[in-house]
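WARN no homologs supplied; continuing
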Amino acid sequence: MAFRYIEEIPSPQGIKTLLPLSEHCKEIKKQRDELIRQVITGETDKFLVIIGPCSADREDAVLDYISRLAPLQEKLADKLVIIPRIYTNKPRTTGEGYKGMVHQPDPEKAPNLLEGLKAIRKMHIHSIEQTGLTAADEMLYPENWAYIDDILSYVAVGARSVEDQQHRLVTSGFDIPVGMKNPTSGDLSVMMNSLYASQHPHTFMYRNWEVRSDGNPLTHTILRGYTNKHGSNVPNYHYEDLMLLLEMYQKREYTYPACIVDANHSNSNKHYEQQIRIVKEVLHNRQENDEIRKLVKGVMIESYIECGSQKVDEHIYGKSITDPCLGWEESERLLYEIAERV
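OK structure emitted
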C-alpha cells in the first residue's frame, strides 16, 4: 500500500457541532462580509489591508497581534477595512518543512490533522470573539474549506494552486471574496483564466457529492511577483504592471475588476522591510491614475509582533517561523500612512 490510513477525520458538520459559531459571531461575520463585499464591488472607496503573520503558528501570539489591529480598525474605519491574516496552511515548494497549524497544532510535535482542524477553528472563533475581526486564510486544500466556511471573510488561492481545476471550481461556490494570485511563473493569463472559471457556474464532484455552483462574482486578482527562468524574483506591482492587468481585464467580461497587491513574496524579493516602500508606491500610483485607483482595492502585508523570522526551536514570542515579517511598530505606522493616502 502506498500510504497508511491513520485516523478517520470527522465530517465538517461534526467539527462544527463540537466547536460552534455563536449567533453573536455570526452577526459580526455578516456585517464584515458585507463591508468587504462593498470594497470589491466599488460601492465604497474604503481600502482593504490584509495583514498578519506569514503563518499562524500559535494562538496566543496570533490573538495578541490581532488584538492590536482591532483598535486601529476602529480608529481608521472611515478609510480602511483591516482583514487579519490567519493563515493556517503553509504551502511548501518541496513538501518539506512546517506546513501550518492544520498539520501541526504544535510546530515542534508530529503532525496531527484532527487536532489541527480543531485548533484552527478554535483560533478563528476566539479571534472573532475577542477582536470583532473576521479573517483571511489561504485555501491550500479545497476539501478543508468546509471546516471553516462559516468563519472566514476572505480567501486567497496561492501561486502554486491557482492553476488547479479543483480550486477554481470550489471557489466558484463561495459567497465571499476570493483572491487569485498570479502563478510563480508570472503568466498573468493563468490567473485571469482562473478568475474567469471561478466567476462562472459549474457542476463537479466535491466531498463525495455532485454539486452545482453559481459562480463567485467577488473573485479577483492578487499580484505577488514571480520567479523567472533564471530563478530571480521579478516584481509586478509597478505602474506598467497595473496598467497591463487593467488591459487584460478589459479583454474579457469579468465582474467587478479588482486587484490586491501582495507587498511581500517575489514583489519584495523576500526582503520583508521593502513592503513599506512597495505599499507607498502602489498608493502613489492610485493617486496618479484614476483607473488604477478603481482597480487596486487593497494590499496584502506580512506582519507580526517581532520583525524578521526565526527557526522553530528559537521560541521568540510573536516572531515568524516561516517567511520574515514586518514588526508591529513598523506595521502600525504603515497602517496610519495608508489611511492618510487613500
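The mean pLDDT is 96.
OK
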